[in-house]
Amino acid sequence: MSTESCPVDHADRPTDPVSGCPVSVGAAAFDPFGDAYQADPPEAVRWSRDEEPVFYSPSLGYWVVTRYDDVKAVFRDNITFSPSIALEKITPVSDEAIATLERYDYAMNRTLVNEDEPEHMPRRRVLMDPFTPDRLSHHEPMVRRLTREYVDRFVDAGKADLVDEMLWEVPLTVALHFLGVPEEDMATLRKYSIAHTVNTWGRPSPEEQLTVAENVGKFWQYAGTVLDKLRRDPSGDGWMPYSIRKQREFPDVITDSYLHSMMMAGIVAAHETTANAAANALKLLLENRTVWEELCADPGLIPNAVEECLRHSGSVAAWRRLVTSDTTVGGVPIPAGAKLLIVNSSANRDERHFEDPDSVDIRRDNATEHLTFGYGSHQCMGKNLARMELQVFLEELTRRLPHLDLVPGQRFTYVPNTSFRGPEHLWVQWDPAANPERTDPALLHTRHPVRIGEPTTRGLSRTLTVERAEPAARDVVEITLAAPAGTPLPSWSPGAHIELQLGDDVSRQYSLCGDPEDRSRYRIAVLRDPDSRGGSRYVHDELRPGTSVAVRGPRNHFRLDAATRHHVFVAGGIGITPILAMADAVRAAGGSYELHYCGRSADTMALLDRVRRDHGPRLHEHVSDAGTRLDVTTLLAEPADGTRIYACGPQRLLSALDAASAHWPEDALSVEHFTTAGRELDPAVEHAFDVSLADSGLTVRVAPDQTVLAALRAANIDVPSDCEEGLCGTCEAPVLDGEVDHRDVVLTRAERSAGTRMMTCCSRACGASLTLGL
Ligand code: HEM
Ligand code: FES
User: ipTM value of the model?
Assistant: First the structure.
């Protein structure tokens, strides 16, 4: 290996005996066209994530970036890290191939994905509207119709190559519809697209280069012909006619060169990415049979499953940027002019960001934070169209062919390249005699609503069975819920709650009070509320051993602070449930605590025997009937450093504690909230404001009757959410400028006054604008 071409500073680094260069053995051996990377890109660079997250690859001539935070930081800064090389040929082209391309006047140039500022953002803004969730919704019937037609063709066959028989052509047809391009010979377009992929991200041999150049040249010509046709009559539907019309208004922004290049790149961007993503998703789900079966049983899980598949096995494995000024990535100095291969598929498997990243968890609450669509000002404009297609594919296949299996023993092949990734064939088999639609034709007409835009984690329930329902005090029932055999339940920490779906329209949250180590069951205790509108009444009257219940969570908005030296636990009535779990944990860890349990009379105090047994010496019982009522003023008279009060109970008790702790250090009192007051926005009282997005280069107007979260989603910005009531912290965004009107119960007083974070589902601007780090 020549050290002359290597930009690593050789002066103070020993030469590696293998590579002949101060790069490490792993870096020297890195080959993105080799078998290991082609088989599994994130696995092939696992060593890098662990040992050397930013390294120089002498064979590629690129710096390679593999950890989540570093990849995202590169995506975020499109000035220091220019996207101009995103579509450059990664393998130098032979003179003959260049001559072939010239014969076709090939002049692929800047589109959006490889355009620098200041040209890029004005173009993106002008062309964005057809991609917003509102505008995308009318494509759904077309996507569904096409999907059904293709499934109809093979549903009775018992065996199919899903790629050849559906997953390639449906996205291509959708792409052509979306772009407003007449449907053409699909096989030819497929050949052209693959040639474009190999030409851009592959390592073709000199002979292959000629065939590739021939097809790429023809693709370019085809794009020009279609463009000319559309120019003659640009009145039709679709993004390309829309762009041609916009050119009349903004000729400097939408140039001729842009339109021709986008015509060709657009077909690839909209089609191959999605076809590959769909094939990857189906392969992954069928390889993880229990997950597939869960999806078949509960299609409500599909939107988040799509995100999890994009995270785990996305169709864009790596992307590229050019360094425009001397900088550092992950602490490693990188000189101006260096090229970066940012391995977003590796970032998506970084355990520093995703828990247990190699597993497939369709309920993962941060799955949408994957970087498969890139991030920031160039983030994929078509992501919501792709998400819609993937949801429809999964929905139709899980419903019509739940008994689908991968044909065993098949070897998966991939078009060798650094970036676009999906199996070339995906053979599946099933018994057509067992097709559910043969016995239940009504099934053909069912459809589950597609979520356009990003899924929330709210709908992600799992079905548990009531194992026991036992009295735990007067009017209190203790319910034990068990997981289906063999599937461990998600872990939880003291203070967490679950949400039970009780009948059609009612759901209620209950704190967990069992043993967090027991992953096979959850325990809750529920007080019968005489004014119940269905929640506690349903639990008491309907839940019996063997009943199934849909359960969401666990979630925790009420956590123990590890820095607490002494814990004062205060429970009022049924509020004992989270407090007991917390006290159990502190006791088990040998921590210091006292437990105050208040109730009207001993027979109404839930789980009292257990509380007495486990916490006797630390327990203070405050029983009104016995005249031992808690005096909160006396209890909290003396503030103590390092002491925190954790309370759950009736609002009267919590307000009294709040007042009595006013002279305590800020945030000494933590209370459990299940609801917040005032969810409805009153447009007569609220004002409109602007939110500027530093990473995305957009300014979004928030109407008086709209949340920041809703306004961001309407502008295609992904922000995960869960409670959408200011309780859980999922929708948090960094605040860079402007004063926030905080309306959540997540942030502490100190965090609110720091003004660097906000909950976008409920909090607003005090003034006319805010700047967020999104
Ligand atoms: C950009 C991935 C589907 C249109 C991108 C980028 C990636 C990507 C990685 C570059 C992001 C960056 O530099 O930060 C994907 C994946 C898809 C998909 C994985 C499917 C699963 C689509 C579809 C369309 C589309 C269906 C069009 C209908 C675009 C456009 C850009 C882009 C126009 C350029 C945006 C800009 O630079 O401002 N996509 N894409 N993509 N994608 Fe997609
Ligand atoms: Fe829960 Fe906003 S989504 S705080």
Answer: 0.98
